[in-house]
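To: structure desk
From: M.T.
Subject: fold request, one chain
Message: Could you run this one when you get a chance? Sequence is below, nothing fancy, just the single chain.
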Amino acid sequence: MGTDHVTWGIPAGSGKSGYVFRGGQVEVKLDGTEFTLGTFTHENFPIQAMPQSQFDVDLAVQVVFEDGTTSGFSFRFHHNETPNVGPNPEDEVDLPTFVSPETVTVDGEEYAVVISGFKQGGQVVRKFISPENGANSADVVALFGRAGRPDIVITSVLNKGAVKRTQSDEYVEIVNRGSAPGDISGWVLGADDAGQDFTFPPGTVLQPGQRIRIYTNEIHPESGGFSYGSKRPIWNDQGDSAKLRDTNGNLVSKFGYGKAAQPTP
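Reply: Done. Structure tokens follow.
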């Protein structure tokens, strides 16, 4: 519609509901590093019941590169306008697909823009939960991923948990930086010591931009629900390396943390 602000509904109080998107200048790398695509705001004000409570809103983003090249990318936001009263009055916003259908070729390599999610309170989530009667904002976090293939990497290790003795809240975070789903069924996450391997169960597939966490002895469904189920710490407090291997034993990703921290290719 040629605007960064769309509204809908008949106000039942403060005004219409709507979406606002604000872009800006940002440094972008092609190595899978995440960046802020822009700031998304949901103006969630009470409106009268709509004939259709769920609908899609399309966002077209024009990206201008330093050399003057321009490329357009598009994304579809799915909106759930929930009832204003009840046990869950918050509206919900998610994306049916997190990958732009358009691509750009840089130095002979084809890339697509992959949205990792909405960043709220320092956390990147795949679904934006918007409380009633306010304007709620989140950064849209994205990356350039190689078109048509997955790219599974370890991105962080929390090796010093806050839970005394067991450090059950330790975790390793793994992200699919590619633009295609990655099946990691049977892959092994290891800490280089006996009894410290975690094997991903059958049917474990990471969608583009999706991040999961493997905890030492906690279950967090919002990040995949994976856990070693260990009553003792897994990751060295001083530092070491976490390694991810495929079903053939090939090293897919290695992440040094603590005293072993180093740039990961």
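Reply (cont.): The chain has a mean pLDDT of 90. Let me know if you need anything else for the meeting.
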